[in-house]
Design brief:
heterodimer; A: alpha/beta; UDP-N-acetylmuramoyl-L-alanine:D-glutamate ligase; Protein-Tyrosine Phosphatase, Chain A; nine-stranded mixed β-sheet; six-stranded mixed β-sheet; 18 helices; globular; B: 237 residues; alpha/beta; Rossmann fold; four-stranded mixed β-sheet; 31% strand; binds zinc ion
């Protein structure tokens, strides 16, 4: 009886909320244990089926974009709480079901990491799949990049109707061969390819231009306080302004648009949906603290960190905090910080590995710089070797942000780059501080 | 004016886990003392430069190891000559394994190595992964290991350091890494030299000594590295 599962799950959610906990896993876990067939049964009733969004970077933002675009035409079920694992999808179903046991939805859009996407297929074979990219992530957790691509290949093979692939990622393009589902692509125009390096290109390989036709193409992107971009959707060109900052979000918009095209939405509807998207948790969200703007940027891996560093150009911060934790969800291994070129990102002097590249202290674009989190000292060592001076090493996250805010003038901006668990603490602290 | 030549082995394929950072650490520590350096990248098929002072190699994807292995073995004579000549080599994980006699994969394939270090490696189902630190004559080395190959040492090398159970070369004999003359191998990523500045300077000292410079290296401000090492030592595996 699904209504029992829904009551159990919803009561657990109510209890968690009453005790001030955020857990998205527990209700899903309980229902999974006691009613193992619940999720499969609920999802099989969705007329539009399930869309899985996966890849190394951009899952959360792209899922949010796609859900917002689709909600203009469908009732959309989505795991927008950051629980990108199978239990998180159960919790999403529970949250969006009513106490009468109904789940009023036409289609589900789920963000799942590579390993959980494979597990999810054992519960429900997705109807649609959106493959974003394969880049090096927390390698201590996922093994290696070729293994990750294999995981995505398994998910693609089990997708029944349509797979949308990033044509600019050769590891993903290889997965298209032999799929039973229909395949289409999204991409960026050749002139913009250099903004979105693949793993090989990031380590010195030449930029490869794909000749595959794309259903949606990112034609132009301009970065300032907001992100202005043009997308070619089918035959029409749509101009729009995104509220989420950074070139990577423009690429994510192209990805979401391509999947929406596969579901039959027209270009104008897709563009108006993308204009309405709010920034996802920690992806360019901003807070007002005593008249200073604090902008949060989640960083998880070298490619994402490099993309996020580019937002510095538009934001012109007076102070910057880099918060690095090393819990399991952040990645225990600090090696990844050495795959980010901070000299290029923070001082505009590229190529840390060549001689004669000492950045002029006046030219450091980050402003007053603080490192924080459990690995604040590791981060400061990394910057030291890129000859970028750290003003303060403060492991306590709240203190670090307070110090940065008190160091800048009203109207100025503080950017906070933060790993996953540090982001959760900071987000809570900032809500408290901004609330007075 | 001295200038050291640093050789970076297979920068495209063997650069996983930030090992390229070791190159940056060495170059900056030279430059902060007014010593120039040049880097020569050696990819599959490229010649090894004559006059190399320091050779660096990192870890790589398993898939890349086969191709690199064949290229590595073709350089066997040159690498032996360089090691005998006192060239400083720091090899991490995958290149450490390739510098040994052989790598026996789980399915019984034998990938021959260059045999410069008297070590042999076999694949296993267990992955040794996590923060690790070892005591060596050059202080505590702090890094992060991540490997499934298990390495045993022969009589012609000494361990780089001592570790605790279930870590290091093979998880059982409490050794980590291997040394012979100026050739070092280790499983510590991190990059290892970032939080182990005394070891970084030992490599530079040996390279400079070989060029006839016996002067002490000017001390640098390594407070941040020591702080970072202390934190890392206290973190869970
Ligand atoms: Zn390794």
């Amino acid at each position: 009886m699904d209504i029992l599962a829904i009551w159990l799950g919803k009561l657990t959610l109510v209890l968690l909320r009453a005790t001030g906990r955020r857990g998205t896993a527990l209700p899903g876990l309980l229902v999974e244990k006691i009613f193992p067939a619940f999720l499969a049964r609920r999802l099989s009733r969705l007329p539009g089926g399930v869309v899985v969004v996966t890849g190394t970077n951009g899952k959360t933002t792209t899922t949010k974009m796609l859900a917002t675009v689709l909600s203009q035409k469908f009732r959309v079920l989505t795991n927008d709480t950051g629980g990108n694992f199978v239990r998180g999808t159960i919790t999403a179903v529970l949250q969006q079901s009513d106490w009468l046991g109904r789940t009023p939805a036409d289609i589900a859009v789920f963000e799942l990491d590579e390993a959980h996407a494979v597990l999810f297929c054992q519960v429900h074979q997705p109807e649609h799949l959106l493959l974003l990219n394969v880049l090096r992530d927390q390698l201590d957790r996922f093994g290696e990049i070729d293994t990750t691509a294999q995981l995505l290949g398994k998910v693609a093979a089990q997708t029944s109707r349509h797979v949308v692939i990033n044509r600019d990622d050769p590891r993903l393009v290889k997965l298209a061969a032999g799929l039973s589902a229909e395949v289409s692509y999204f991409g960026v125009v050749p002139g913009l390819r250099v903004l979105f390096p693949t793993d090989e290109e990031m380590y010195g390989g030449t930029v490869a231009i794909s000749e595959l036709p794309a259903a949606v193409e990112l034609v132009s992107v301009e970065l300032a306080m907001t992100t202005e971009l043009s997308l070619r959707i089918g035959d029409s060109i749509e101009h729009l302004t995104l509220r989420a900052e950074g070139a990577h979000n423009a690429q994510n918009a192209a990805a979401a648009a391509a999947l929406a095209v596969a579901l039959g939405l027209d270009p104008a509807t897709i563009a108006s949906g993308l204009r309405a998207v709010e920034p996802a948790f920690g992806r360019g969200q901003s807070f007002d603290l005593d008249g200073r703007r604090v902008v949060l940027q989640l960083v998880k891996n070298p490619a994402g960190f490099r993309q996020s560093l580019r937002t510095i150009d538009g934001l012109s911060p007076a102070a910057t905090v880099i918060a690095i934790n090393d819990d399991y969800a952040d990645g225990r291994d600090m090696s990844w910080l050495w795959d980010v070129d901070f000299a290029a990102g923070l001082s505009g002097h590229p190529s840390t590995h060549e001689a004669g590249d000492t950045p002029d202290a006046q030219q450091v674009k980050s402003g007053w710089l603080v490192t924080s989190g459990t690995r604040a000292a590791d981060m400061a060592v990394r910057l030291q070797y890129d000859e970028i001076p750290t003003a303060l090493v403060e492991p306590d996250l709240t203190d670090a942000v307070r110090q940065a805010v008190s160091h800048v003038k009203p109207g100025e901006t503080v950017v906070v780059f933060s790993t996953y668990t540090a982001m959760w603490s900071l987000h809570r602290a900032l809500l408290r501080m901004a609330g007075g | 004016m001295t200038s050291l030549t640093l050789v970076h082995l297979y920068p495209r394929e063997m650069n996983i886990y930030g090992d390229t950072g070791n190159l940056l650490v060495l170059r900056k520590r030279l430059r902060w003392r007014g010593i120039d350096s040049t880097v020569v990248a050696v990819n599959v098929g490229d010649p090894l430069p004559t006059g190399a002072d320091i050779v660096l190699g990192g870890g790589g994807q398993d898939a890349a190891q086969g191709e690199i292995g064949a290229d590595f073995v073709s350089r066997r004579e040159t690498l032996h000559a360089m090691a005998d000549d006192g060239v400083v080599m720091l090899t991490i994980c995958g290149t450490y394994q390739l510098l040994g006699h052989e790598f026996l994969t789980k399915d019984g394939r034998r990938i021959p190595g260059a045999g410069v270090l008297d070590v042999s490696t076999r694949g296993s189902d267990e992955r040794l992964i996590g923060n690790n630190h070892i005591d060596t004559p050059w202080g505590t080395l702090v890094g992060f290991e991540n490997h499934s190959g298990l390495t045993t040492l022969g009589p012609a090398v000494t361990p780089l350091g001592r570790t605790v159970a279930r870590r290091g070369n093979n998880g059982t004999d409490l050794t980590e890494g291997a040394v012979r003359d100026n050739v070092f191998g280790t499983y510590l990523h991190g990059p290892v030299l970032a939080k182990s500045p005394a070891f970084a300077d030992e490599l530079l000292r040996r390279a400079l000594l070989r060029r006839g410079h016996s002067a002490e290296l000017e001390p640098l401000d390594d407070q941040l590295a020591h702080a970072a090492a202390a934190v890392a030592i206290g973190r869970p595996r």
